[in-house]
Write a structure and sequence with these properties.
Length: 175
């Protein structure tokens, strides 16, 4: 999500609340300002992951504030969950990361980045079936990225190797 898009979405939602009488003019300005501050901070925290900033200096709070906001759009929540998932992954909180990526996909099923992140997490955990599933979904959405097809094939090969090893072990035990 671009920051500009996040601003436009928050302005639109706050304006709807104002028009419905749920917010005063000042309340609308405050809501937009607070929401946009959190969008920027959530994005900045995710950027820190890519810069390799120390884990102690990372916070999921700005992303969580967007998720909990009553004026968020589905797209804003999906992006906040994806970004928070990236942070959780970096902080070695894999279960939380998986949960956020899965929710991001439910909110925005066209998010190639969330499918890839989820596939990579499952690859790291050697869960070949789910890694294949999410690389497959990502490759269907982005047919031009040959790396997705290669990663999907890698997961399929690993799954096949795991199945072969199970069969060998079973045969040895039966003898």
């Amino acid at each position: 999500m671009t920051l500009r898009k996040g601003f436009i979405i928050s302005i639109f939602i706050a304006a709807q609340c104002f028009a419905a009488g749920k917010l005063s003019a000042q309340g609308m300005r405050d809501t937009i300002g607070s929401f946009n501050k959190n969008v920027i901070q959530c994005y900045e925290q995710t950027e820190k992951v890519y810069q390799g900033i120390a884990k102690a200096k990372l916070s999921t709070r700005p992303c969580s504030k967007i998720i909990l906001s009553s004026t968020k759009s589905r797209e804003a929540e999906a992006n906040a969950r994806h970004n928070r998932g990236i942070i959780y992954q970096y902080l070695d909180q894999q279960a939380r990361a998986i949960k956020d990526f899965e929710r991001a996909i439910k909110l925005d099923s066209s998010s190639v980045a969330s499918y890839i992140a989820l596939a990579q997490l499952h690859l790291k955990q050697e869960n070949w079936v789910l890694a294949y599933k999410y690389f497959d979904a990502a490759s269907l959405l982005d047919k031009s990225d040959k790396r997705l097809v290669a990663n999907k094939q890698y997961a399929a090969n690993k799954l096949q190797q795991a199945e072969s090893n199970k069969n060998l072990t079973a045969n040895v035990l039966l003898k």
